[in-house]
Amino acid sequence: MMIVMQAQATEEEIQQVLEAIRSRGFQPHISRGEERVVIGVVGEARRAEPDAFLRLPGVARVVPLSRPYKLASREFHPENRIVHVGGVPIGGDEVIFIAGPCSVESREQMLETAFAVKEAGAHILRGGAFKPRTSPYSFQGLGEYGLELLAEAREATGLPVVTEVMAPEQVDLVARYADMLQIGARNMQNYALLRAAGASGKPVLLKRGMSATLDELLLAAEYILSTGNEQVVLCERGIRTFETATRNTTDINAIPALKARTSLPVLLDPSHGTGHWAYVAPVARAAVAAGADGLIVEVHPRPEEALSDGGQSLKPERFARLVQEARAIAHALGRSVLHEVPYVAAD
Ligand code: PEP
Ligand code: MN
Predict the structure, then answer these.
(1) Range of the domain at 218
(2) Per-residue DSSP letters for 284-299?
């Protein structure tokens, strides 16, 4: 349930409500909106007594939350939330691009790609150092050396970096290098990992599981939010359907359907969504038109040599054109693509 404070409620009254929530064994999560303060009451499924809170001074209303997720819901936090990654705002008025190779493969490949995507207009650099591969015999990533290369590419270009973390025990290591932690589709319901990533305090890019419903995605986000980490970005990356012409089926519906349910930012990954480089730009354009807050795109200078996902990777020139196309579409809809921003280290 959610406690809506009166617009003129004092800080003392707010603190009194927080205390009342804690004393009943629940956790308060406070959302300070422009007009009024809303306090989410969460805890395990025991019933909270709305009447007890209604009588406290400064309380306007006590509203049951109708969705299974609470902190992730738009009811709890009506205004769009902005997640900052190394100074890049995700979820504001402007569309952002995350780009880079599927895997970090070598120093040369990483630096070349980083400069190329920056030149093309990307805001955040991606690259996997720990790779979740379907076969144990496929390239598994460079591990910590890959993280070092990502950090070097950030130093060289000023682009913040996002990279995948696959296990709770890897979180500290990955968080030492990355500006944002990625939780991949295969790990969307790895609850220990969700909690550990949340506890790191880093922004988290949470990808939709390939067979997960939107409610399940939002409940996974809820695990992260319930650690007190509010910096969660959702990503649609295609789901498994009966269709075999493409690697996955991009669920464009997910963009407006998520936006209706949550105020967290929503990105689209047209690379994994299609699995084919020639379909990446058309689907990316559709995502901008559908209201996505940004795109995450695989880019490789020589896709034919890539150690993973070469077939769905764009060459830098094609990626640069996509950013321009996205600018035109955003503009037609009264939005824009973010311009370059200086790197800001997290506290
Ligand atoms: C990736 O981003 O390279 C990746 C493995 O994505 P997903 O988890 O969506 O398959
Ligand atoms: Mn990939």
Answers:
(1) 83-337
(2) HHHHHHHT-SEEEEEB
